[in-house]
Amino acid sequence: MSRTLSPPSPAAPAAAGAPARRARPPLGRAWIAAFFLLPALILLGALVVYPIVWSAIRSLFGPDGFTDFVGLSNYTGVFTDHQTLVALKNNAIWVVVAPVVATGLGLIFAVLTERIRWGTAFKLVVFMPMAISMLAAGIIFRLVYDQDPGKGVANAVATGVHDTFFKASAYPGAHPRVAGAGSGTLAGPVGGPYTSKPVRPGSGPAALALVGVQPSTLTDATQAASPSGCPQGALCGTVWLDFQPGGGTPGKIDPGEKSLAGVRVEAVRDGHVVATATAAKDGTFALPASRIGAAPLQLRLPATNFTAQYAGVNWLGPTLVTWSIIGAYVWMWTGFAMVLIAAGLAGIPRELLEAARVDGAREWQVFRRITVPLLAPVLGVVLVTLVINVLKIFDLVYVIAPGASQQDANVLALQLYLSSFGGGNDQGTGSALAVLLLALVAPAMFLNIKRFRKEKSR
Asked: Which residue range(s) make up the domain with 351?
């Protein structure tokens, strides 16, 4: 009797709710993946892992190398050294200011450029500094911050604005020749005001002689002259440059001596200005009798006559050098923040924004309560990335800060270089600074990695 063979029964289905097993890739594919990853792993180990391990070990030894074991002394020295403390303070300023300003400006530019036709062109201009290396940007801003307004753009703007409201004097640095000789001799502190001895109206012309005038300010000056036809009871005089090449009599107007036109003269009695006059083209002036009276008074040349020309702001001086370099950094990295934030803006559903506007929300409310909260993940990534970047800042500080104020702009990366190779020749301290810098960067780096993984898992 024949027997019918039944087909094999199917495997029992997996229990409900049991996690499905992932199929393992074939062994050949795993080897192929390892083969392609191996070069990257070798480079990562040679360029990242090995330097970190070597620096950590080297930080336990002194300047003489691995024969001079000092333990944790280098780390103790780092936190007691004045230059390193200045570097830590400046790094703190960098971390607080630069990422926040760059991210804030990037957010503003990204939002505003969505509303203008030429937004793409504006984004291109703002992003262009990212194509410039740190070294090139440092050279550019070293010129921008030059003290000479003829070279430095920043001081050209500063002096232009200042001179619009506060005019420089025509005779900066002018001063009396000798004090205490004669009734017309002037005396006073350097830079003015210069005051004469008491004079009586109607007693004769007052001689207000000055020296120290730059020849370049006298191109249009004429021969100084003694006042003629002085009104009855008035006080007249001359303001001139009392200098004659090859000779001349001090306190007397000699042929060839130039007038100082435009100098303001004040008549002072009992500490109060009773009359003023301005020297004419030939240097003469007259104070009317109706204003000065008959009692003795003093003639005063205010300090405004001798104010030096505004030289601009000392951008690279000890006070402003760190802030000036931060300005250069913001100029470079605002475009980076703007592009990433603009990409995040493109992913925001427009329906939410339009619904808020229909409900009566103003643009500021839409921006603050909808746009910014939805952009929070992108803003966090940009901010943390810039924090990591500024902790390692070196190029801009090294190039922009002049030698006189380099220590005032010092940061940890620069101090690491100076300690190891820039004259300190102490690689033990430099390695300790490298480990410290790694310890400061690591939390921000891990936070960024955690955020990336969180975004990927959504």
From this structure: 73-157+315-457
Asked which of 280, 306, 332 is the last residue of a domain, the reply is 306
Which of 284, 306, 328 is the last residue before a domain boundary? 306
Residues paired with 151 in a beta bridge: none
Amino acid at 398: Y
Strands 235-241 and 206-210: parallel
Q: Which of 97-101, 191-195, 356-360, 423-427 has the least mean pLDDT?
A: 423-427
Whether cis (ω within 30° of 0) applies to the bond prior to 193 is yes
The 10s digit of each residue's pLDDT in 181-225 is 444 578 888 888 999 888 888 888 888 888 888 877 787 788 888
Q: How far is CA 276 from CA 6, 192, 263, 291, 333, in A?
A: 128, 17, 11, 9, 56
Element (H, E) at 269: strand 264-269
If you write DSSP's letter for every residue of 155-223 in order, what string do you get? HHHHHHHHHHHSPPPSSTT-B-S-SSSSTT-EE-STT--EEEPPB-TTS--EEEEEB---GGGGTT--B
Secondary structure class of 147 (helix, strand, coil): coil
Residues 414 and 338 in one domain: yes
Q: Which residues pair with 104 in a beta bridge?
A: none
What pLDDT was estimated at residue 178? 61
- Whole-number pLDDT of residue 217: 79
- Tell whether pTM > 0.85: no
Question: Which DSSP letter does residue 21 get?
Answer: P
**Do residues 285 and 411 share a domain?**
no
Burial class (CB in 10 A: 0-12, 13-18, 19+), 83: middle
The answer to whether position 359 is within a domain reads yes
Give 22's pLDDT tier (boundaries 50, 70, 90): low
- In the DSSP assignment, the letter for residue 294 is S
Q: Which residues pair with 256 in a beta bridge?
A: none
> Stretch 76-88: mean pLDDT, rounded?
90
- Taking the C-alpha atoms of residue 242 and residue 213, their distance in angstroms, rounded to an integer, is 10
pLDDT for residue 181: 42
